[in-house]
Amino acid sequence: MPLDDTDRTHLARAVVLAREALLDGDEPYGSVLVDASGAVRFEDRNRTKDGDQTRHPEFEIARWAAANLTPDERAVATVYTSGEHCPMCSAAHAWVGLGRIAYATSSEQTSAWRASWGGSPGPVAALPIQVVAPGLLVDGPEPSLEAEVNELQRRAFER
Ligand SMILES: [Zn+2]
Predict the structure, then answer these.
(1) pTM above 0.90, yes or no
(2) What is the domain range of residue 82?
(3) How far is the CA of 57 from the centre of ligand 1 (A)?
């Protein structure tokens, strides 16, 4: 389904969390878990600066959901995220049976930006969510947030 104003509100919050992460020395990624009633149930942002490179917000959301939501609740929940899930987080999302994903910018965009700044690819292939978890409903990117996410990624890349 196309992204609507409610989606854009939650995506904008995910980008605020990404900025928070950047300003705290972490990588600029943030994510929000919203239940079927539209309530925000959990949110987090990247916390990798202390050396654990698996501390992605989408992974944290999957584990929180497994511990706190029933399978039925998970299936109708939506995860909003500033940058498309990496393969680890796509797998975790699918394994715990969460529902739709909406992202502000795609892994393809992020990879292209990094390459244009002279960066080398990371240790994990930037596969699209649906390559890792073909059954998931995925929407994005959201063009109105692209410039802001690009700026956050650029600042992280340059430090
Ligand atoms: Zn991830």
Answers:
(1) yes
(2) 5-158
(3) 7
